[in-house]
Amino acid sequence: MTIDATVPNVARMYDYYLGGYHNFAVDREAAEKILAIFPDTPAAAHGNRRFMQRAVRHLAREAGIRQFLDIGAGLPTQGNVHEQTDGRVTYVDNDPVAVAQARTLVEGEERVSVALADLREPETLLADPHVAGHLDLAEPVAVLLVSILHFVPDEADPWAIIARLRDAVAPGSALVVSHLTLDGVDAAPAQRGTQVYRRSNAPIVPRPHRDIERFFDGFDLVDPGLVWIGQWHPVPGEDATSHGYGGVGIKAS
Ligand SMILES: C[S@@+](CC[C@H](N)C(=O)[O-])C[C@H]1O[C@@H](n2cnc3c(N)ncnc32)[C@H](O)[C@@H]1O
């Protein structure tokens, strides 16, 4: 496995925001630049994790979903998907370190698998033995794209990628998305933040609400729709700091 410790890596930067230890000096340096511009980034990252956890529990409870495909799962941290449900879970990431760490964490857990695959190649991802051999796509699956789509540029057509995933899963399946936005952020800090990520392994593409909502084409958005992450089924008293929008949709039959 090759690890490039000279280029800031978005998985490791995110790990640093969450207070993890799977990061190098180059990641911390880039993350600190973001913290200088947006000091509430750790609160927003923790809020994003809580959104993911609420969405998984909601889908298990309200929609009876028993299978979860978490793409861009990241470095394992606290409150992972398989800790929110007793259903089957497949973690996917294109970062070999995240995948290796996840495999170590879930070793011996028969209901959890981990795939090294890239969202930008959905056919290969769906055919990966850790996905196809672990989940039954004829039964509903929740596809989690939590804080990953803003690393997929418009040129890679993330809308078409989601349409491919939607067509591969059974009716009653779900789509969970959280996505960075710069809606409401002044142009100067927005530009400085984007610049920092331009030097990382995955430049960031914040999107406006209307472009994120289009990811749900072919899905019925669960109430309250696509909203600030902290406002999606909030738990009273929890910090609602949000740097993006979150939503959950159910595939129309
Ligand atoms: C910000 S982290 C999000 C982690 C987790 N989903 C969460 O929200 O807490 C983004 C993750 O997406 C992964 N990623 C970025 N682009 C990807 C791609 N094209 N295919 C698969 N994973 C990707 C990164 O390696 C990283 O682990």
Account of the protein in words:
The protein is an alpha/beta fold and 253 residues long. Helix 7 links the parallel strand 4 (142-146) and strand 5 (174-180). It is built from nine helices and eight strands. The protein starts with 9 loop residues before the first helix and ends with a strand. The model has no long low-confidence stretch (mean pLDDT 96). Strands 1, 2, 3, 4, 5, 6, 7 and 8 form an eight-stranded mixed β-sheet that branches. It has helices at residues 10-17, 25-37, 41-62, 96-106, 122-127, 129-132, 158-168, 187-198, 209-213; strands spanning 67-71, 88-93, 112-116, 142-146, 174-180, 219-221, 227-228, 244-251. The structure holds S-adenosylmethionine (SAM). Residues 10-11, 14, 48-49, 52, 71-74, 93-95, 98, 118-120, 146-148, 151-152, 202 line the site of S-adenosylmethionine (SAM).
Any low-confidence stretches, pLDDT <50, length ≥5?
A: none
Number of helices: 9
List the secondary-structure elements in sequence, H or E.
HHHEEHEHHEHEHHEEE
The profile of the biggest β sheet is: 8 strands, mixed
Bound molecules: S-adenosylmethionine
Mean pLDDT: 96
Using the alpha-carbon principal axes, give the shape. Answer: globular
Bin the helical content.
25-40%
Helices and strands: which structural class? alpha/beta
**What is the alpha-carbon Rg in Å?**
17 Å
How many β-strands, per DSSP? 8
Strand residue content: 15-25%
Distance between the amino and carboxyl termini: 42 Å
